[in-house]
Amino acid sequence: MVKSAPKVLTVDEFIRHYGECDRYELIDGELIEKIKIFNPRSPTAFRRKGA
């Protein structure tokens, strides 16, 4: 399988496309998806949706 090189983004492009979203960050021009870490001590960790 051939993997293409990731597209390098400028800060302006990143802000234009992902400025309102905190799911991604820009590191060395590469778009990185943030990883959510489960914290069992969080007050909302075991809350059911809609509760």
Indicate the structural class.
alpha+beta
Major sheet details = 2 strands, antiparallel
- Write out the strand line-up for the largest beta sheet, numbering strands in chain order: 1-2
Calculate Rg over CA atoms: 16 Å
Give the uncertain stretches in residue-range form. none
Task: Kindly report the average pLDDT value.
Answer: 81
**Shape label:** elongated
Number of strands: 2
Number of alpha- plus pi-helical segments: 1
The rounded distance between the terminal residues' Cα atoms is 45 Å
Tell me what portion of residues adopts beta-strand conformation: 15-25%
Helix content: 10-25%
Order of helices and strands: HEE
Sequence-ordered SSE layout with sheet pairings:
Layout: H1 11-18, E1 24-27, E2 30-33
Antiparallel strand pairs: 1-2
Please give a structural write-up.
With 51 residues, this protein is of the alpha+beta class. The protein has a domain at 8-35. It has 1 helix and 2 strands, in the order H-E-E. The protein has a two-stranded antiparallel ribbon. Strand 1 (24-27) and strand 2 (30-33) form a beta hairpin.
Summarize the structure in short.
This protein has one helix spanning 11-18; strands at residues 24-27, 30-33.
Provide keyphrases for this structure.
51 residues; elongated; alpha+beta
